[in-house]
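Thread: Modeling a multi-component assembly for a lab meeting

Hi all, long-time lurker, first post. My supervisor asked me to bring a structural picture of a complex we are working on to next week's group meeting, and I have zero experience with this. I have the sequence lines for every component (1150 residues in total). Could someone generate the structure of the whole assembly? Inputs are pasted exactly as I received them:
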Amino acid sequence: MATKMIRDVIVETIDAEMGRDPDVIMLGEDIVGGNGSAGGPEAIGGIWSTSTGLWGKYGSDRVIDTPISESAIIGAAAGASLSGKRAIAEIMFADFIGVCLDQIWNQVAKFRYMFGGKSRCPVTIRMIYGAGFNAAAQHSQSIHGMVTAMPGLKVVMPATPADAKGLLTAAIRDDDPVIFLEHKALYATKGEVPDGEYVLPFGHARQVTEGDDITVLATGLMVSFAETAARNLAEEGIGCDVLDLRTTSPLDEEAILDSVERTGRLLIVDESPPRCGLATDLAAIVASKAFASLKAPIEMVTAPHSPIPFARELESAWLPSSDKIEAAALRLMSYRRG
Amino acid sequence: MAKLRAFTMPKWGIEMTEGVIAEWMIEEGKPFSKGDLIALIETDKITNEVQAEYDGVFPRLIAATGEAYPVGALIAVVAEPGETPDAAEVDAFVAGFKPADASTASKGSKGATEPAKAAEPAAAQAAAAAAAASASKAISIPADANISPAARAFAEEHGIDISGIAGSGRGGRITYQDVLQASRPAVSVGGGEPIDITPTANRLDNVFASPLARRLAIEHGVDLGGITGTGPRGRICKADVLAKVALVEPETAPVAPTPAFARPAAGTTEIVLMSPMRKAIARSLSLSKSTIPHFYLRSRVRIDAILGLRTQAKAATGEAPSVNDYIVRACALALTKHPDVNIQVHADEIHRFGSADIAVAVATDKGLITPIVHGADTLSVAAISREIKTLAEKAWAGRLQPEEFQGGSFSVSNLGMFGIDQFDAIINPPQGAILAVGAGTRQPIEIGNALAFATIAELSLSCDHRAIDGAVGAAFMRTLKELIEKPALLIG
Amino acid sequence: MQLSREALLRAYRQMKTIRAFEDRLHDEIQAGEIAGFTHLYAGQEACAVGVCEHLGSQDYIVSTHRGHGHCIAKGCDVIGMMKEIYGSREGLCKGRGGSMHIADIGVGMLGANGIVGAGAPLAVGAGISAKGNGTVSIAFSGDGACNQGTTFEAMNLAVVLKLPVIFVFENNHYSEHTGVAYAVGAESMAARAAAFGMRAEKADGIDFFAVFEAMRELIDYCKAGNGPAAIELDTERFFGHFEGDPQRYRGPGELDRIRAERDCLKLFRQKVTEAGLLEGKDIDALDEEVMALIDRAVVEAKAAERPGPEHVVEDVYISY
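Re: Modeling a multi-component assembly
Sure thing. I ran the full set together rather than chain by chain. Output:
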């Protein structure tokens, strides 16, 4: 075991996988940095420091800096993966999915299906998402709702360093295309990480806290908010089952339903606007499959139906928080039953 | 001078521009109290009851019934109760009255610009009227109130005051759910004792198995780590565990040792000289069988608890000692309790041993050999396991040193992995006894008054009657059985 | 360089197969036999075959929505293709791709693509693999795709990473219903590609030999590690953008004229017979053989197994 930050875990895991499998290659903007400049290569090693040192170890044939061309990056990663490589593509800000959406949505997600099950595209697309740094409307969004809805993609959102290692290893080794979402505000999160290589299976949620009163579902940054809220509520004798979903596609439906069947109350925290998102998706699944277990209407703590604002106060009002989660939990508990 | 007020045409709703007095409910000069119904005013949307907001009296009603007046127009003059202003005062007041801007609320009445706001005073007034009139329990909600039809019907039927309800629908619309909630007694939340929410180790952890599968695994001593799940996404489910239960310990199916030589050609006989090792075995065991008075004590022991410990060890460290390792440890502890079995027999002498040096039978391709685990009573099960593995490797490689296989005070021979249920072993002289262990099989037993299944292994202790009596051997076997069936005692 | 007799026969056979395949499909579509959108390649055969005759199964191509020609030229099974277009479970894509998504990764055909311009970045990715193999990757584009941002990004990336990718622009003068003179602002597609920093050539797409020779040079150039190249081929499409297109953008008599004067099969036949390399009867024999193959393909496709509802959610993932 060792204490590490998520960003360190990402580099180490990519390093381990590149060392293990010579077909693994990496493409992205500034993942090396400095090419064609006076400062020379490795000027940055990735703007999120998630590829530091990899170029030095594996060279330009495997760690490939690209111009700012998201469509070309994803397309190249996809074409390379179709023809035998195992490509990891980095999209610097998940918001830029707009620029390369066709390559993800119409190409990568659909190859295997359209080509009669005869192709294999083992690409891992790492996308950096999330609010909290006042980066404003075009550099702070979450896209998990959009990509979870696309059949053919798997969607992974680790919340802890230990999970990041196991899930990224699984993602790179997975023969299906995986969207690996890294929250920019979680990069410096520290946690205990087991030594040695290991794989966390997709579709397997993590139990964060255990309680009998409310099921709380969260992903990414929202997990720690939910955990804080749960600890505060526990002081009042209200027990929350907080589940870190880890992957939204595939989804650990069993864990969710087992928990709701026990608690009868569901609270979903989602860092997204409220329409057609993960929260509504989970709420619908539970309402249709565990209706008989519900003691209160489902609470969804989401951002409002607006783009993400710039000013500090506005952004923090936009984001869900542990206070909002606690308030929603109290509403759940105070629902008046007939 | 009387204080006069204007009573103007109220504005209900953004779209209302004029109203018609359907009926005056109070006569001129008659005093009224706050909450009394004073007029019915009609718009093209609704006919609304207007209630008095204060005590007063109308010295003059201006608006004629059936006539339309614009919003904000003066339709009556109001004086305080008990006042009787003269006509000239009233005329002057009327003449000096200037209607306020039609779009703003005018004095003396609550003109509202939003239907929702109109609903509130209307509802409040309706509620007050209901209280004052005491004619019926039904409440009346204005037609343009922001409330769903089902909610309205429910509220009216149950007399629920919707003025305090924050609608959860779009734009503050009051839904059936909101009204239903309001009809029920409030629940107080919080203020309980703090509780512990730390997750227990097993929930949703590394082994991806359904809760039922986990329970079955513990019950049957099945190691979840070795199972490939066939459920969704590789999840281990009940069927997978039950399939494993059908298999017996050891983990692999019974294995036949490969013959050490090929069959001679049909019809021929091949004559081979015995190897030195073969000769030694022949000599030793012939001597043993012919000179030592063997007797056999047989016992059936339940090894479920050991299997369970193995599962736990596997889950914790990824590997686990074999059942035989546990049995060796059990023998070691039993020997310390029964030193009269922990002996060697030499002609007239009995050598008593202070430590349990247990020989473990290993079948190699050259023949049977019994490397010794020295001081097994001082070694943990895991240490015994490692030691036996090391010795077995050396035995196969032919690299055992003499002191590693000569001597010892006790032997354990296990043919369970070859599918043998029960056998009796030949004592290795000069030792005093040898334990033969068979395969663990699922057998029916009685627990309480009910039939149940347990994993049973058949043990057979061969004793040298020159040094060990029946009762002594039996006592050892009883202790051994207890140690095997309660392996918690093996620790320490 | 002189092509051997076998090579010439093979080249003609490939081109004739494409022509017969597309002509027959046109008839079947008119008869209402085939679902969805189909985009026929007839007229452009010399481009596909002139390129693909240089390629092996370790060379990669990515095609467009007008992909039947590239598929056949790259070695996809013709009968499997026909079955796919008919939507049969025995088709190359088990009936799930259809005309616009035919692929056969095993022969290096990384798919026809329904999104204009989407193929170029994929071809660049295949170029990364090709660089390691010592082979090449070909991105087929039309005069429509040449204006897509994805094409520009792909060209730049190929130059920057010095990959063995050849961008083949088949200029059939119409992007959907709009003429190339309007839609392409640059002097030519080759000039634009050159401006991106790669070697760019032009060739007459109606002349198989011109295409073949130009491609030989460019493939050698790329395999020598010089980076990507581009070629603009001037060609014609005989049918509409899609089947059902009324083609009102054509001039009067244009279709007749191009069929008469700009037919690559006729030109090939003329050249080889005039040079005495092949005889008319050799080519006639091939014509017959190919027509029989296409007939058989249609018969088999119509009789082939249909997919069922249980096949809808198959192969979305390898494992889920």
